[in-house]
Amino acid sequence: xxxxxxxxxxxxxxxxxxxxxxxxxxxxxxxxxxxxxxxxxxxxxxxxxxxxxxxxxxxxxxxxxxxxxxxxxxxxxxxxxxxxxxxxxxxxxxxxxxxxxxxxxxxxxxxxxxxxxxxxxxxxxxxxxxxxxxxxxxxxxxxxxxxxxxxxxxxxxxxxxxxxxxxxxxxxxx
Length: 174
Hints:
The chain has 174 residues and is an alpha/beta fold. The protein has one domain: 2-Layer Sandwich (Nucleotidyltransferase, domain 5). Helices cover 34% and strands 19% of the residues. It has helices spanning 3-13, 67-77, 118-132, 142-154, 160-169, and strands at residues 21-29, 45-52, 57-62, 83-87, 100-104. A 5-stranded mixed sheet has the order 3-2-1-4-5, sandwiched between helices. It is globular, with a radius of gyration of 17 Å.
């Protein structure tokens, strides 16, 4: 069995909603786009991520980055009343109705004090750097590679080799 599929299933089984202070951001995966940069490149895979500070990360592939789409993901993966940190992207404007919301304007300041999304930006960098070595991932398997990156990042302070053995062989693996 593909270990990425086992990781995908493990993360689904171990899932619980994020709470506390949560960073939210969207990112785009795919080849280099020629010409000016735009948020909504049609050729790229749109990914939404939420990082519980000092905790786990949850990622999801989304069809679009509309407010409806992103708020739906937030409601599905985060406890109501949490504290959310985002950039100033307009899709997050209605987040104030679900919890406390701080929006960071990257053009004016970059992460002063607790008001930043540097942890999640670090994850995007971590994931993209590791996915580069594959020289492209098929869209049909991208969700498995993304969950592998989520797993590696969430358990980066643990012995990942032993954790993978336990996932593959079960709880009786010594």
